Amino acid sequence: MKTVLILGERAVREAKRTPDALLPTLLIPIFFLIVNTGQAAKIFPTGSTPFLEGQSYAAFQLPATLLLAASFGTAALYLVEEIENGYFDKLRATPISRGSLAMGRLSAEALKSSLMTIVILLIALPFGIRISSGPIGVVLLVVLTAGWAVGYSGFLQFVALKTRNAAATNSASLIFFPLLFLTPNFVPRNLLARPMEIAATLNPVTYMMEALRSLILVDLDWAVIGKGFAVVAGFVVITVYANIRTMAKYD
Amino acid sequence: MTPPTDSAPAPDESRPAPSAEPAITARDLVKTFTGRSGTVEAVRGVNLTVNHGEVFGFLGPNGAGKSTTVRMLTTLTGITGGSATVAGVDVATDPDGVRHKIGVALQEAGLDMRQTGRELVVLQARLFGLSRADARKRAEELLELVELTEAADRLIKGYSGGMKRRLDLASALVHRPDVLFLDEPTTGLDPASRVVVWDEVRRINAKGTTVFLTTQYLEEADQLCERLAIIDDGTIVTEGTPASLKADLRARRGLDADPTLDDVFLDVTGRQRERRAGEVSEVAS
Questions:
Q1: Cα(A88)–Cα(A96) distance, rounded to whole angstroms?
Q2: How many domains does one find in chain B?
Q3: Looking at CA atoms only, how far is residue B273 from chain A in angstroms?
Q4: Which pTM was predicted?
């Protein structure tokens, strides 16, 4: 655990020194929030749209914004850079566990994502978006999004370790977009056309989105929130395990 | 070995007395890589023994298997066949044990360019288990040793090639390793920076650290190494002290004067130099 924190501290320091890499991860999701809300808000007016639970359409769109921001981690690309310049070998030659090596940057992604989520929520509040589940809901929202950031960055880090190639890693990051569009992103699942509903039901990101949406629009609906946390926990376990295995066999 | 520089420090008294066991052994070491284009046997049965406290040179042309051998000995790549020990620890069965005892400075100075020199050395020390305070103290000592104290708080991306090499050396020494592996430590450096790195290697060795050095520069091997081995096409083709290898070639060829290490190298690898389109390259005879 100590070595995870040491490597995480380094990654945070690195993020502070590269604000150019952080800024788009905040601006692009907010851009999508504004554009998607602008396009569909008139179709779904607050007063006559039951699934908005009395809030604006922007509140309905907020989970997609948070997930998008959490999917823009830089850990994998920095890892490819370190593989290419040889620093990764230097770290591999130290007597730390391969798990620490895998988790170092991911722990920093969790922190960065938490801060990013808080910033996006602070930006959203003046526009009338409320977190119906209260302070506990805000904490759960931050934890859930940070968990997603760890899982998704872990997936990209795994691709980086396998391919050792920046272009391949960058391309893999785009997989989030089809996954996002196969969720109930614009309307609840029961309003989707049947094939889309089936696709959304099979897509684990749907349960993340519904958990986040529940925290924002409804209250502490543990059945929905639980599914979101189960998805994140499973995703993190699988990706971190894949990272550790790949690092152990890395030649 | 008597260090040629006056500034060489006395042997480190805090260091435990070297054991009778060799610092490095390799027995029938083999490494094969399997890819889409087939299987390549990069190392084909290397046998070597490096004694405690010596600077051992590992020479060979490009692609001969030098770096692959180093990567196996430093636990960075798996061993396909044979066995190896470093500081008495088996490389294949106890890689973590080996990592505690070795320092590694690989080709092209692998460094994190977004950190300062001090941050990098402190981080390295902490990964070897030093407390934050002890790591800072050790970093101070090492940065002074490699004469980077003034540049310590600058980002590494602004360092010159020579400074990066010296920093890489410093970071490899944080835990006072028994064996230091240097893979082509001066490749790409200008002559002045090269001499500075040579001095550092001598100083480190004078403190009792065994140095395993790969190089393409025969002059470097002649300057630094007490013994050396030449590897070609994955196998060791000769081994000995620079003087004994030269004397052997002189006797075999009946030469009037001592040959250079370069002559020895060309003789045992069966290569000759040829100029093509203005470039000098080694070709098989």
A1: 13
A2: 2
A3: 31
A4: 0.85
